[in-house]
Each structure stands twice: as structure tokens, then as C-alpha cells.
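[User] Once you have settled down, look closely at the record that follows, and write a paragraph about the fold.
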Amino acid sequence: MVDFLRGCTDNHVKRDTVSRVIELAERYAPSNKWFVATVNQVLLLAGDLVPDAVAHNLMRLVAEGTGDDDDAADHELKCSAVEAYLQLLSQTPQLPPVLMKIVCWVLGEYGLLAPQQSAQVRLSAPKRRLAKMAGTCIELCGAA
């Protein structure tokens, strides 16, 4: 369905597909890491059509973790989310506003969990972009 979303041009069909992909991902995700990756793909492809509740639920999942008493799994989820968003920042020229909010929040809360060298290498090239992103985050979060 995500592949279908890539080629879809009709916003009505796209919106319907987005809601179905999110619903299926929430219900049948084999792991939290897979769920985060899938929602990120949907946000990249159709961020303007994704309800704000999806972003809120994704941030809550990262913050609260699995809901079990497995601190190691929760820590791993946070680390993998940080890595995923650092990679998105370094490889994607333009992020949809809803995804930018998530990236800002996750990196603001858990950015220190990234391996130091990994974060430095990934963030050294797009420094101007990060400065622009900081302004965008302030603008987006101030409006929310």
C-alpha cells in the first residue's frame, strides 16, 4: 500500500490510503521499530494528508515505549528513532511540516542517545539546514 501511495496523484484516494495504511500499521505492526519506519514513510509521501493525531501517537509511542517494563526495549526504540530521524535529516531535502515537528521533538528529547560520532558526522554537512530547521521548529511548535 505504501508503494501505491508513491504513485498516487488523487488526493481523495491518497487520503483514504493513508488512513488505511496507518490503521493497518497500528493494528498489525510486527515491532515498534517497524511501525515508526512505516509511519515515517507515510509522512514523507503524504504528510499533508496525515491527521495530527498520528503524529501525536507516534511521539507518545517513542516517549512511553512498549508499555511493558522492558526498559532495554524502550531505550532501543528511542535510539532507533533518533537514528532514523538523523538519517532523514541528512538524506531528505524537504520534510513535511508534521514530520518536521516529530523530528524536532524526538531529537530535542532523545538526541543525546545517538552515538556521538554518528550524530556529528551526519549533522556536520547540513549545518545551515539545521539552523533553518530550528527556526521552522520554533515556528511550527509556536503555532501548535
Observations:
- The chain has one domain: 2-143.
